[in-house]
Amino acid sequence: MKLKNVLMVAGVLGLGVSAEAADYRAGEPPAISRDALAKADYVKGRAAFQARCSACHTVGEGADLAGPNLFGVFSRKVGAKEDFDFSPALKNAGFNWTPARLAAWLADPENYLPNNNMMIPEPVPEKDRLNMLSFMMVESGAADWPRPAVANANAVRDPTKPYAERFPSFWNHMMFNTVRYAFERPGQAEYIVDVYYNTDGSVTSNTKGVDGFWHIKDDGKGPAMFCYALQGFAVEPGVMVECIPIGAMSIPRFNERLWKSKGYKDQVINGGILPGRPQASEPAKPVSPDKTG
Ligand code: HEC
């Protein structure tokens, strides 16, 4: 019998399990105060989350990746999100996530909730944990303090550096995934197009005739803007020209419907981002995650 099974049986029979494996049953770890969380460094927390967690999790409203979407995680039971196939370790944990509980897990990912399926290579270092939890609370809808105004804080404003270095998370998010536009107008069938923003400034799509170009406007005064012009849509007016602050596109979020904008007359344009692309449209690689942030 594998050790894992022995521990599970021992747990079920109430025989007492090894001290290390039983940690989480000992009750709530020391609370982390709301003030400490509210005052923590959101930007550092975001960088740590992007580097260590975002490959497998979205934290704003979004899709499951290899790990479950974490929106609302601090108001749900461990392992309870519908449609996600959790390990028994999480399903049977029997408590709600709190910042203190999650900090304890991230400090000891293997032994807190023994036999869980979250394969992270190492514990989250102590210096990052509070910041990461603070960022996660803001993004998952659990914070009762305002979102810090840091839209552009991760941009390195050195115009001689390539965009990939100046805006790494924006770059990784937009240049290697799919943007989906769904045009709605009363009385008309929905019209959906998938668009690919390419690193050479071109925009291609899955629909014949739809293409365009993009550029970044960064005069050092206002926030850096991502601007694009698209043409060839089969619905009026057939073109789209927009500028969006880069900060708004920096946090990986995957969902078919992330934003809505007003289009032509009573048209509504839904925009969303889906992970990946049908096939690599170019050889460039995302920049390494430790530069993200
Ligand atoms: C390699 C992919 C991967 C990485 C990286 C990863 N996770 Fe996970 N995460 C998972 C999987 C898979 C599960 C479900 C585990 C299970 O069922 O045992 C999970 C579960 C969770 C849960 C529980 C969700 C719930 O509803 O109970 C939280 C919270 C979480 N992860 C946070 C994080 C944080 C914070 C990081 C970064 C430090 C991180 N994860 C990094 C894959 C990952």
Structural account:
The chain is of the alpha+beta class. It has two domains: 3-140, Cytochrome c-like domain (Cytochrome Bc1 Complex, Chain D, domain 2), CATH 1.10.760; 163-291, no CATH class. It is 23% helix and 18% strand. The protein contains eight helices and eight strands. It has helices at residues 3-13, 34-39, 42-52, 88-91, 99-107, 126-140, 163-166, 168-175, and strands spanning 178-184, 191-197, 202-205, 211-217, 225-231, 239-245, 255-262, 268-274. Residues 1-22 and 289-293 have low confidence and may be disordered. The structure holds heme C. Heme C is lined by residues 52-53, 55-57, 66-68, 70, 73, 78-79, 81, 86-87, 89-90, 97, 102, 106, 116-120, 124.
